[in-house]
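Thread: Newbie trying to understand structure tokens

Hi all, I'm a second-year student working on a class project, and my supervisor (Dr. K.) asked me to get a predicted structure for one chain before our next meeting. I've only ever worked with sequences, so writing a 3D structure as a token string is new to me. If someone could post the tokens and maybe explain what I'm looking at, I'd be very grateful. Here's the chain:
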Amino acid sequence: MSAESYDKKLAGEQTRRALTSTLQCINGAIPLIGELADEFYRGPEQGTWVKLQKLIEYLERINLSTGVVSNNKECIEGLDAYLDITLDMKDKVAELLKAMEKSDMVLMGDLLCYEIIPVLEAIRDAAGNILKCGVDGNASH
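---
Reply by user tm_fold:
Sure, no problem. This is what the structure looks like when written as tokens:
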């Protein structure tokens, strides 16, 4: 196996693992977001902030995985769309942080339900499509 072939295989495996990790995070985050939104609408309690920290950890892991995926220089079907959606997620998280700084609990609930869940679902779909098509650069376009 040539060095170039080995590098492609390694990059593909790293991308596959990163996307799989992203899917696991999203599967944990979406139900948590539903709980959090309800709690922010009612008024957060101590446990709400613990759940929010867990959500932030999921989002950070997705962000780290996105860095791994974006470093794969191979031609991967759907990669550009995936990266665009993850940028959108960063914008939505920034909006959530602003709402948190303003202690606007209703806005936090709204952003979680109506902005962050849909973008996570879009990331889930894009990651799933990339995995289905293959990450070795040999997928047809």
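A couple of things are worth pointing out once you decode it. The chain is about 85% helix and 0% strand. The longest helix spans residues 3-42. Feel free to ask follow-ups in this thread.
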